[in-house]
Amino acid sequence: MEYSRIQKIIYWLKCKKHFPEIQQPFQYSEQQTGSIMILLPDTDIAFDFSELILNQASSEIKDKMVFLVKESLAKFYSERLQKYSRLYSYKDIDSLALPNEWFIEEIKKENYQNMIDLNITFSAFSSFLVRACDSEVRMGFNYDNSKKYYNVILDKNYQKDLNGTFDMIGQFIKK
């Protein structure tokens, strides 16, 4: 998506508001238990990866896990996954394809310690939401400016190996 000059200014102002100046580097600690929000992309890989997570994650992890799913795609997922899902719709997205202020505040209130963006390419909505919520673990794939949004960056090559991606994510989430 290409932004106009005014859209870039609005985007910058939103970033300034939601992104603290000092970013805490990721430091792994096993002391805290944390909830997990997984932002699913709008691509076919999301169906396979979500089922892999549900099949291989321990019950302890499943109890703390929520998938963020676009409402229009929810019917394509299994009933089992829908049980662990939180839906969002076009009403939660503003004209810049970013999450609305009230949606950011709703997610912040849920206080997720782990937020995982499974979009392989840049998604303004997902990246901004992960960064604005400022959870301890902000995980996403490597692309231009990904360091601005995430403190744990996954290699895109793992996309081809879903089990490898699952294992990599498991190493970094706060359990």
What does it look like?
Helix content is 40%, strand content 15%. The chain is α/β, with parallel strands linked by helices and 175 residues long. The chain has a single domain, classed as Rossmann fold, CATH 3.40.50. The protein has a six-stranded parallel β-sheet, sandwiched between helices. Strand 4, helix 6 and strand 5 form a beta-alpha-beta unit. It is globular. The model has no long low-confidence stretch (mean pLDDT 81).
CATH hierarchy: architecture? 3-Layer(aba) Sandwich
Number of helices: 8
What's the helix-strand series?
A: HEHHEHEHEHEHEH
- Describe the global form: globular
The count of β-strands is 6
How many domains would you count in the coordinates? Answer: 1
Radius of gyration: 16 Å
Which structural class do you get from the secondary structure elements?
A: alpha/beta
Portion in strands = 5-15%
Q: Largest sheet, order of strands side by side?
A: 3-2-1-4-5-6
Helix content: 40-55%
CATH third-level topology: Rossmann fold
By CATH reckoning, the class would read Alpha Beta
Report on the biggest sheet: 6 strands, parallel
What attributes does this structure have?
alpha/beta; 175 residues; single chain; six-stranded parallel sheet
Fold topology:
Elements: H1 5-18, E1 36-39, H2 45-56, H3 59-63, E2 65-70, H4 79-83, E3 85-88, H5 101-109, E4 114-117, H6 124-133, E5 137-141, H7 146-149, E6 152-154, H8 162-172
Parallel strand pairs: 1-2, 1-4, 2-3, 4-5, 5-6
